[in-house]
């Protein structure tokens, strides 16, 4: 599966974090998602019905990011990856990167985040 589709810079206001202020006020999270599949079978025929739409992946990401609260951005990334793999059978692997540019750190920084890569279990 060498075909990769990606979404970059998806911004969502959500309430993740361990501190009460983060949970109450929320903050901006930025997501980058890559997913791997075999696009050859549908791309050659220009068949949208067989494609995994990046809009559908976007909706899945936003539903997970806003539908449940997580203390850890690692758990948030895992939940998004699991939802994408569960909803789209054609997706063989997914990479989810979560950026938390307003993390409560006493210092000057541009970004903190996590990146996970998950593969569909073969079986």
Salient structural properties:
4-stranded antiparallel β-sheet, 4 strands, alpha+beta
Radius of gyration: 16 Å
Shape: elongated
How many β-strand runs? 4
Low-confidence stretches: none
Beta-strand fraction estimate:
25-35%
Please outline the major beta sheet: 4 strands, antiparallel
Q: Taking strands numbered 1, 2, ... along the chain, how are they ordered across the largest sheet?
A: 1-2-3-4
N-to-C terminal Cα separation, in Å? 16 Å
Number of helices: 4
Secondary-structure element string: EHEHHHEE
Average pLDDT confidence is 92
Structural class by helix and strand composition: alpha+beta
Helicity range: 25-40%
What can be said about this structure in brief?
Helices cover 32% and strands 30% of the residues. It has 123 residues and is α+β, with helices and mostly antiparallel strands.
Describe this structure in words.
It is a single chain. The protein has 123 residues and is α+β, with helices and mostly antiparallel strands. Helix content is 32%, strand content 30%. The chain has helices at residues 20-25, 40-43, 54-67, 73-87; strands spanning 3-14, 27-37, 93-99, 113-119. It has a 4-stranded antiparallel β-sheet with strand order 1-2-3-4. The two termini are 16 Å apart. 20% of the residues are buried. The model has no long low-confidence stretch (mean pLDDT 92).
Write the layout of secondary structure elements.
Layout: E1 3-14, H1 20-25, E2 27-37, H2 40-43, H3 54-67, H4 73-87, E3 93-99, E4 113-119
Antiparallel strand pairs: 1-2, 2-3, 3-4
């Amino acid at each position: 599966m060498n075909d990769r589709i990606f979404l970059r810079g998806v911004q969502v206001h959500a309430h993740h974090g361990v501190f009460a202020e983060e949970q109450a006020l929320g903050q901006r999270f930025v997501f980058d998602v890559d997913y791997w599949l075999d696009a050859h079978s549908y791309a050659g025929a220009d068949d949208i019905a067989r494609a995994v739409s990046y809009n559908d992946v976007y909706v899945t990401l936003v539903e997970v990011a806003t539908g449940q609260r997580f203390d850890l951005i690692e758990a948030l990334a895992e939940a998004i990856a699991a939802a994408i793999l569960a909803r789209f059978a054609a997706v063989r692997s997914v990479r989810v990167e979560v950026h938390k540019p307003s993390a409560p750190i006493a210092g000057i920084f541009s970004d903190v985040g996590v990146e996970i890569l998950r593969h569909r279990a073969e079986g």
